[in-house]
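FAQ

Q: What does a record look like?
A: Structure on top, sequence underneath. For example:
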């Protein structure tokens, strides 16, 4: 069964800066601790990454997955869905960017379904860890 999670964080930077960092997939390994390698497989007509392959360390093992990105609501948000992946049935998500008086509220929505059998509590913890880590690391990189 898929686990859904939603989190928000206030980032001391403009929405443009948040979007710039969050869509610069090639540099994820520089700041996202669990991401080991990223390859952009193709681009859309606007030059944005469309399909991206990730190699990451997760749940004590190395995993490979490919995400396809959707920019229909850009610049307010962008989303993605899993095309294929090791140990994953679903890895769908969305980043949203809302300007605040000071900074940007970044919203992160994530739906994860692992193909390896894990008790619900462990799946929830894994989803929570993915989310919390991703937002904190994004915030740190954007504010750097």
């Amino acid at each position: 069964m898929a686990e859904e999670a939603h989190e928000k964080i206030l980032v001391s930077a403009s929405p443009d800066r948040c979007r710039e960092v969050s869509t610069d997939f090639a540099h994820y390994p520089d700041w996202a601790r669990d991401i080991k390698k990223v390859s952009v497989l193709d681009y859309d007509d606007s030059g944005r990454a469309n399909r991206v392959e990730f190699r990451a360390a997760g749940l004590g093992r190395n995993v490979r997955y490919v995400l396809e990105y959707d920019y229909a609501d850009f610049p307010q948000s962008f989303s993605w869905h899993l095309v294929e992946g090791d140990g994953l049935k679903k890895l769908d998500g969305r980043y949203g960017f809302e300007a605040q008086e000071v900074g940007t509220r970044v919203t992160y929505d994530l739906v994860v379904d692992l193909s390896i059998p894990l008790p619900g509590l462990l799946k929830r913890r894994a989803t929570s860890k993915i989310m919390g880590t991703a937002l904190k690391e994004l915030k740190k990189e954007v504010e750097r």
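Q: Is there anything notable about this one?
A: Residues 3-143 form a domain with the Alpha-D-Glucose-1,6-Bisphosphate; Chain A, domain 4 fold (CATH 3.30.530.20).
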